[in-house]
Amino acid sequence: MNDARTVLVVVHTGRADAVRSAQLVIEKLTAAGIAVRVLADEAKDIGCTGVQVMECGDGIAEGAEVVMVLGGDGTLLRAADLARPAGAPLLGVNLGHVGFLAEAEREDLAATVERVVSRDYDVEERMTIDITVRRNGEVIGTGWALNESTVEKSERERMLEVVAEIDGRPLSNWGCDGVVCATPTGSTAYAFSAGGPVVWPEVEAMLVVPISAHALFARPLVVSPDSLVAIEVMPGTPRAVVWCDGRRTLDLPPGARVEVRRGHRPVKLARLHLTPFTDRLVTKFGLPVTGWRGRSRARQEEPDAPGRG
């Protein structure tokens, strides 16, 4: 039996603090007898010896027990491309701004590494979405997303004309800037900026959020996770584009059809803290909760014990 342990470290090398954090992580993991992999295009900036330098590819996370990500949500989404095929959990250390996908903050870095060394973390699965792009029935592209897939106009001065379909039935035409199809994980990302609802991660659903639509009925929609959502670009409209997680893109010719469904493979996230999602929202957005007396009120409303008058 092979007891060798391996961790893949993915870094936002454009940030000096991320590079310093990576060097600390690698030093501590190596000292604990854990092999460390880094991406070839990041190795020079990190400058550490004794690491396995790997070319980027689907197999880079194979056999890694965790993928540690040092950066913001953009870096974590990039790492998800590497971790998802191998089923390796992502552990994000937030060095960006809001960092909803990250599990730890920079001040917790040393303790986070210790948790990895001792395997003291939980793993949860997050729903993804798969997309299929067709034209005249022929598949012209595929993709996937952890946060969202977005159909957008390519020309700023022109409106995008689309028709939305849910489970094989037409819903509405929209003249708009685009349409976001998101997971619950992505409800706090682009869909949130477009006016969509915040959905708790354990809820299984897909969101459909029109962007700046000129239509009477253009409300955000929450549909079944097993639904098939299709966005068709009207034949007479200008060219459009589909983005997956703001990273991968595909041009859409007039008449293209983008089909969105539950992803066949989830993304795994390593969790250090079983913090309620409500608390994460309050912390990340700095929400005001002054005056909340829920716990004391709950105690006051407890029924009297037997024998009390």
In short:
With 309 residues, the chain is α+β, with helices and mostly antiparallel strands. 21% of the residues lie in helices and 35% in strands.
Can you give a write-up of this model?
The chain is α+β, with helices and mostly antiparallel strands and 309 residues long. The protein folds into 2 domains: 121 residues, 3-Layer(aba) Sandwich (Rossmann fold); 134 residues, Probable inorganic polyphosphate/atp-NAD kinase, domain 2 (Tumour Suppressor Smad4, Sandwich). 21% of the residues lie in helices and 35% in strands. It is built from 7 helices and 20 strands. The strands form 4 sheets. A 6-stranded parallel sheet has the order 3-2-1-4-5-6, with helices on both faces. The protein has a 6-stranded antiparallel sheet with strand order 9-8-19-16-11-12, with no helix packed on it. A 6-stranded antiparallel sheet has the order 15-14-13-10-17-18, with no helix packed on it. Helix 2 links the parallel strand 2 and strand 3. The N and C termini lie far apart (67 Å). The C terminus is likely disordered.
